């Protein structure tokens, strides 16, 4: 195990930005030496890697240009797990062919099975963290673990019918419901409830996911995905990238010619404090003095938005702000106040006041002169995204009429 991971419990290395499996920084002995462990040879290897990565991105872009000719380029940006890929999938459903091929559906089935298993283990980890005893449901844990244990191959996990009864009993137990109520105090997949309430259908031998199942699935993006589609006779190129810090390094390469930035914000980020946020904010000790207290995911999103809106390469781009996960945000508001995240917020903790406050924070963070259009969305809801996207494109065409040639 590399020193930086064990000592600082981080998910990726401070230096090479890879996770424990791909970390290239050899651990040395001695206090703090892990952070300074790069040898010259390693430095040059890393430089080579960065160059290779950048060349690969250029290649993807050149291919896109060749394939698609002229188009309006829309970049989907935002913090990790904010819902970027979910919106991208909705565009595939609404404007392209959706998800039809059996091979694709089988792949999504595998992902959904893995999501279900991860949710189960995250709930158990949450119970431990919150000190909620699980002894009364020990028999269910044994039963479920006994079924899951032989499926050690990551690609062969299946929500077999034998799992359904104990998993439903586990989910409905008083203890797990208590854990779930406090889900923002630990890491839990957003689609936990959706999948655990659809176990019977998912466990069917012939199960293939429908579109709703697919938009609820979760896999962090570590590549650059693009689609092209026609919208009212105009060709749009939409690009989805990863929001994790290691992925954000790739964003800059994509800014050129971007006419629209669709920036996605996870509204529930006001209650979440991830390890990534702590690491990110600790880079700005003057702005965020008490990192542990300040490390809300929404603050990181604000910082990222602030940075990209100041980018000269995006000076003439239209910014669409998607305040996403409205459904989860509404569930959360009666439980968690906005004030710990934003100390200046002193109004009622209801949807209207909180959403207005958050919206103002972001629109003010955008550098002046920018065209910024805020929208509130539930990305898992196809109808909602269809409507919002239509409104967005009207704003884009108006704001950018010269560039689109529609004036
Ligand atoms: N309930 C609910 N879930 C959502 C919503 N938007 C996204 N999700 C879920 O949130 C999870 C993360 O969404 P993604 O689209 O993968 O997030 P992302 O921004 O692409 O994440 P990275 O690729 O890691 O940057 C998925 O399980 C989605 O189904 C929403 O509006 N409501
Ligand atoms: Mg993604």
What is shown here, in short?
The chain has 407 residues and is an alpha/beta fold. It contains 18 helices and six strands.
Task: Describe the secondary structure blueprint for this structure.
Blueprint: H1 3-8, H2 40-68, E1 72-78, H3 84-95, H4 102-129, H5 138-148, H6 161-172, H7 174-181, H8 192-196, H9 199-202, H10 211-216, E2 225-231, E3 234-240, H11 245-248, E4 258-266, H12 275-281, H13 291-294, H14 297-309, E5 318-324, H15 326-332, H16 351-365, E6 371-376, H17 382-399, H18 401-404
Parallel strand pairs: 1-3, 1-4, 4-5, 5-6
Antiparallel strand pairs: 2-3
The site of guanosine-5'-triphosphate has 26 residues, from α3, α10 and α15.
Give the helix level as a range of percent.
Answer: 40-55%
Largest sheet: 6 strands, mixed
The fraction of residues in strands falls at: 5-15%
- CATH architecture type of the largest domain: 3-Layer(aba) Sandwich
Quaternary form: single chain
Q: How are the strands ordered across the major sheet?
A: 2-3-1-4-5-6
Shape: globular
- What are the secondary-structure elements, in order, as H or E? HHEHHHHHHHHEEHEHHHEHHEHH
**CATH fold node name of the largest domain:** Rossmann fold
Give the helix tally: 18
Number of strands: 6
> What ligands does this structure carry?
guanosine-5'-triphosphate, magnesium ion
Q: How many separate domains make up the residues?
A: 2
Q: Class of the largest domain, according to the CATH hierarchy?
A: Alpha Beta
Per CATH, the superfamily of the largest domain is P-loop containing nucleotide triphosphate hydrolases
Quickly give the structural class.
alpha/beta
Overall mean pLDDT score?
Answer: 83
- Spans of at least 5 consecutive residues whose pLDDT stays below 50 are 1-19, 22-43
GO molecular function: G protein-coupled receptor binding; G-protein beta/gamma-subunit complex binding; GTP binding; GTPase activity; metal ion binding
Protein name: CRE-GPA-14 protein
Keywords: GTP-binding, Magnesium, Metal-binding, Nucleotide-binding, Transducer
Family: Belongs to the G-alpha family.
């Amino acid at each position: 195990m590399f020193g930086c991971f064990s000592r600082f419990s981080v998910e990726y290395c401070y230096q090479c930005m890879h996770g424990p499996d791909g970390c290239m920084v050899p651990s040395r002995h001695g206090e703090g030496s892990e952070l300074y462990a790069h040898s010259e040879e390693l430095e040059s290897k890393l430089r080579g890697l960065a160059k290779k990565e950048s060349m690969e991105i250029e290649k993807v872009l050149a291919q896109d240009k060749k394939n698609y000719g002229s188009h309006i380029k829309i970049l989907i940006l935002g913090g990790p797990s904010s819902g970027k890929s979910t919106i991208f999938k909705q565009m595939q459903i609404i404007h392209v062919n959706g998800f039809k091929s059996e091979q694709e559906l089988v792949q999504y089935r595998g992902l959904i099975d893995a999501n279900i298993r991860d949710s189960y283990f995250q709930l158990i980890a949450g119970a431990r963290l919150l000190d909620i005893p699980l002894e009364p449901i020990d028999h269910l844990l044994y039963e479920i673990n006994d079924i899951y244990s032989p499926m050690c191959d990551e690609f062969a996990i299946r929500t077999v019918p034998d799992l359904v009864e104990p998993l439903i009993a586990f989910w409905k137990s008083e203890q797990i419901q208590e854990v779930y109520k406090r889900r923002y105090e630990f890491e839990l997949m957003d689609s936990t409830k959706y999948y655990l309430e659809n176990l019977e259908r998912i466990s069917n031998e012939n199960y293939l996911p429908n579109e709703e199942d697919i938009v609820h699935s979760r896999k962090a993006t570590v590549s650059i995905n693009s689609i092209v589609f026609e919208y009212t006779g105009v060709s749009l190129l939409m690009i989805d990238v990863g929001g994790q810090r290691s992925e954000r390094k790739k964003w800059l390469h994509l800014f050129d010619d971007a006419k629209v930035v669709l920036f996605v914000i996870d509204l529930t980020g006001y209650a979440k404090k991830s390890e990534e946020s702590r690491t990110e904010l600790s880079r700005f000790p003057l702005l965020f003095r008490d990192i542990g207290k300040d490390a809300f995911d929404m603050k990181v999103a604000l910082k990222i938005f602030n940075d990209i809106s100041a980018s000269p390469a995006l000076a003439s781009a239209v910014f669409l702000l998607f305040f996403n996960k409205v459904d989860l945000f509404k569930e959360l508001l009666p439980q968690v106040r906005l004030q710990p995240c934003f100390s200046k917020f002193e109004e009622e903790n209801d949807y209207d006041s909180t959403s207005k406050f958050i919206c103002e924070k972001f629109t003010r963070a955008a550098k002046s002169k920018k065209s910024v259009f805020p929208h509130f969305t539930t990305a898992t809801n196809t109808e909602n995204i269809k409507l919002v996207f239509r409104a967005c494109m009207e704003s884009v065409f108006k704001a950018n009429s010269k560039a689109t040639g529609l004036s």
